[in-house]
Amino acid sequence: MPPGEPEPSVAEPHALLRGYLDYYRDTLLRKIEGLPEEELRGSRVPSGWSPLELVRHLTYVERRWLCWGFEAERVPDPWGDRGGDDRWRVPDGMSAAEVIDAFRTQCDRSREIVRDARLDARARLGGRFPTEDEAPSLAWILFHLLQEYARHVGQLDVARELADGTTGE
């Protein structure tokens, strides 16, 4: 079992979803650990995203789905991870440490939102979801977040291997 995965005995769905989200959050941070600034900000893939842009994107993914979506909080610029060309971006002058700190802070907020919420609870109306028909359950949102992380951490695996040969966990 890879480090950080929930124990195999965990069967309660809420704990399992929270555990795997934390596993992917931690894996994302491990994948960028030790990369020099030029590798964090540069791209190794044809589509042009950088590891730091990916971290910022996932910060906003969490915010869009849990704060703006599930909680219907007012979120200034929920699509702020994208530039005018709809590509992920990190604002000029924002340090790598600031991007990573914002990610950690958002993950803490996401954990707080999810901690005591029921999986069958529907997203509140008025934020991302204007009507009840559009409002997904928390279970759906968490599964959506898991697939986002699985896909993006897999992409980061490739970028890291191209950067310095590091593979695996």
From TrEMBL:
Gene3D superfamilies: dinb family like domain (1.20.120.450)
Name used for this protein in its record: Mini-circle protein
Organism for this UniProt entry: Streptomyces nanshensis
